[in-house]
């Protein structure tokens, strides 16, 4: 600061000195003072107002006399070029503004819309991004397995202790190709299908939230070419994700608001890989098909019925409830939106908002609904159909079972009264503070509230259907209930065939013929076995024969889940014969483990 003040004080003094010197024409050192009076004229004209001009003239005189040349012309030329550039850029901006305002059409997309992601993803595949000078780089973590390039694949390495060949993934993350999209604050000009487009990506802060905006413009009065471009980007995005299921979950942003975020893209799970009684599969498939049909919305509207469909998949853990949900999504090409009601930060407001932001047709999956801790609000003892009503009829409270005996009833009433008092005082002690977590009425409001999009399929899964509130699973909210059971013998056989049939098919179904180039088989120790150790693939007859043998050793009283059988087979995925030999022993130890209620077995 001191330096600046000093310089500011010095400049007028210098200017005054130089003005004096020049006006007196008595500079003894100046053998080459500015000729023709041009510089003097400039100085006389600007000197007093612009002290820098005086310094400039002094420099001109001293440097010119030192070099022995006249610097007036180059200086004037430079000034002229500078002024010309300024005028040109001013004119350019004025013309650009004029063109942008009157001759270009534009479309804005903000990052809360799904199109933003589709567009940026599409841009990342375009060659323009490879040559762009201003880009944002990100590491894509939600890629599907089949996007993994050969470059990223781990290379087998000899283990340091010489024990065998292992796959080494240490460099894998480093090899993931980055994704480049236009940088914030940048402008990209590009041509697409013979049309010129200008893209500007910017960011502004709205409240606590950073909002990103992409504006695409094109020449002409109509934004039609931009709309076509966006449609093209959207279609390419979906074409790339065809045969894949996208999975989204709520994500909390800086503004403490939840929004949907795509968390994964998975290859479609074929329906046939889910082992379930065919009649159930057909029922749910045909019901969904009819519901998703283009004519259905009109049919529902004509009858004043809300266009919704809900399914409840219930049964023990690991019996295929989630698997069927994903397979259905794949079969109909729908995206899956998963909500965990256990999330303590998720409020009812968030839930309603998330439901309102669902695409027209999608699957929304509420997993393990019985563990979601859904409560009826204490003062919702007056809930009817799960929603608040005006009456004070507290006996219908869903969360207190009133014992039949008189004393029991009295105790229950007391407990209820205490609970009510407690919740009242809690509410009073924290005025204005919202109760966190989702209540039953909050969930019901989200499911059939006005803001929730019609057309979606709601799937709820549970291990304990009896623990669910009736309001949640009444018709209109749950239209189809599909039971899942532990594996029957038939299902065990099907699981066995599914596990090994592809190897048999790959081997050409020839009896006992080895595949031309057997894939490397990996044992539990991740050691790649030499090719001659690879078990011989089964012929189709052998497969069916040993599958029957396998299933005969599975108890028929359905105490083993499909997930457990799958886990056992996975440990012997290249060796079906071994699986058949060991299944009896495995079943025995598993039953013992279940009887002792231990959570772990001996690892067989
Ligand atoms: N019926 C089945 N058909 C094919 N695979 C199954 C089946 N049941 C379970 N699995 C396999 O077991 C694993 C767990 O299955 P899944 O998650 O679908 O079970 P779930 O019933 O949803 O379990 P949970 O109730 O614990 O959520 C998956 O890898 C799946 O492939």
TrEMBL record:
Q: How does it sit in the membrane?
A: Single-pass membrane protein
Which intervals of the chain are annotated as region Disordered? 376-405
Task: List the InterPro entries.
Answer: AAA+_ATPase (IPR003593), AAA_lid_BCS1 (IPR057495), ATPase_AAA_core (IPR003959), ATPase_AAA_CS (IPR003960), BCS1_N (IPR014851), Mitochondrial_chaperone_BCS1 (IPR050747), P-loop_NTPase (IPR027417)
For the keyword Transmembrane, the answer is yes
Where does it live in the cell? Mitochondrion inner membrane
Q: Name one GO cellular component term.
A: mitochondrial inner membrane
Which superkingdom, per the lineage? Eukaryota
Which parts pass through the membrane?
A: 41-59, 71-92
| Catalytic reaction equation(s) | ATP + H2O = ADP + phosphate + H(+)
* BCS1 N-terminal domain mapped to chain residues: 76-274
Q: Which family does it belong to?
A: Belongs to the AAA ATPase family. BCS1 subfamily.
> What protein name does the entry list?
BCS1 N terminal-domain-containing protein
User: To which species is this protein native?
Assistant: Bombardia bombarda
């Amino acid at each position: 600061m001191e330096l600046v003040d000093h310089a500011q004080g010095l400049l007028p003094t210098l200017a005054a000195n130089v003005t004096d010197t020049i006006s007196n024409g008595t500079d003894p050192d100046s053998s080459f003072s500015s000729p023709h009076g041009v510089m003097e004229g400039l100085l006389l004209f600007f000197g007093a107002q612009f002290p820098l001009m005086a310094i400039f003239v002094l420099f001109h005189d001293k440097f010119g006399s030192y070099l022995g040349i006249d610097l007036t012309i180059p200086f004037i030329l430079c000034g002229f070029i500078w002024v010309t550039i300024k005028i040109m850029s001013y004119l350019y901006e004025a013309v650009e503004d004029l063109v942008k305002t009157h001759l270009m059409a534009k479309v804005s997309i903000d990052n809360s819309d799904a199109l933003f992601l589709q567009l940026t993803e599409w841009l990342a595949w375009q060659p323009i991004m490879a040559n762009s000078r201003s880009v944002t780089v990100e590491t894509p973590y939600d890629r599907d397995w089949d996007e993994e390039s050969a470059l990223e694949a781990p290379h087998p390495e000899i283990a340091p202790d010489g024990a065998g060949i292992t796959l080494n993934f240490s460099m894998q993350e480093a090899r993931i190709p980055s994704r480049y999209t236009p940088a914030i604050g940048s402008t990209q000009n590009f041509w697409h299908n013979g049309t010129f487009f200008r893209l500007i990506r910017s960011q502004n802060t709205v409240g606590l939230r950073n909002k990103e905006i992409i504006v695409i413009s094109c020449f002409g009065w109509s934004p039609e070419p931009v709309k076509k471009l966006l449609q093209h980007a959207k279609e390419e995005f979906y074409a790339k994700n065809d045969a894949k299921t996208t999975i989204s979950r709520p994500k909390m942003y800086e503004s403490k608001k939840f929004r949907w975020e795509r968390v994964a893209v998975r290859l479609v799970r074929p329906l046939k890989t889910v082992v379930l009684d065919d009649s159930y599969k057909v029922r749910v498939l045909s019901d969904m098909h009819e519901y998703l049909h283009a004519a259905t919305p009109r049919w529902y509207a004509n009858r004043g019925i809300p266009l919704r469909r809900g399914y409840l998949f219930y049964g023990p853990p690991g019996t295929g409830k989630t698997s069927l949900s994903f397979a259905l999504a794949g079969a109909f090409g729908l995206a899956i939106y998963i909500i965990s009601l256990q999330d303590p930060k998720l409020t009812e407001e968030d839930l309603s908002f998330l439901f309102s932001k669902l695409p027209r047709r999608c699957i929304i999956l509420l997993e393990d609904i019985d563990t979601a801790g859904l409560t009826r609000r204490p003062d919702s003892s007056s809930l009817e159909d799960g929603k608040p009503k005006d009456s004070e009829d507290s006996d219908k409270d869903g969360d207190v079972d009133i014992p039949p005996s008189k004393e029991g009833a009295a105790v229950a009433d007391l407990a209820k009264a205490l609970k009510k008092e407690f919740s009242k005082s809690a509410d009073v002690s924290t005025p204005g503070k919202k109760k966190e977590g989702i209540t039953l009425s909050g969930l019901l409001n989200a499911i059939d509230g006005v803001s929730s999009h019609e057309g979606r399929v709601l799937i709820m899964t549970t291990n304990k259907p009896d623990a669910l509130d009736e309001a949640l699973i009444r018709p209109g909210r749950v239209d189809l209930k599909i039971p899942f059971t532990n594996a029957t013998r038939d299902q065990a056989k099907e699981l066995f065939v599914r596990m090994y049939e592809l190897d048999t098919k790959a081997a050409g179904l020839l009896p006992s013929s080895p595949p031309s180039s057997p894939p490397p088989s990996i044992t539990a120790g991740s050691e790649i076995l030499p090719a001659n150790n690879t078990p011989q693939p089964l012929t189709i007859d052998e497969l069916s024969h040993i599958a029957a043998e396998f299933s005969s050793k599975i108890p028929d009283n359905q105490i083993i889940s499909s997930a457990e059988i799958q886990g056992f087979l996975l440990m012997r995925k290249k060796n079906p014969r071994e699986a058949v030999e060991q299944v009896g022993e495995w079943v025995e130890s598993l039953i013992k483990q279940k009887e002792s209620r231990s959570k772990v077995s001996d690892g067989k």
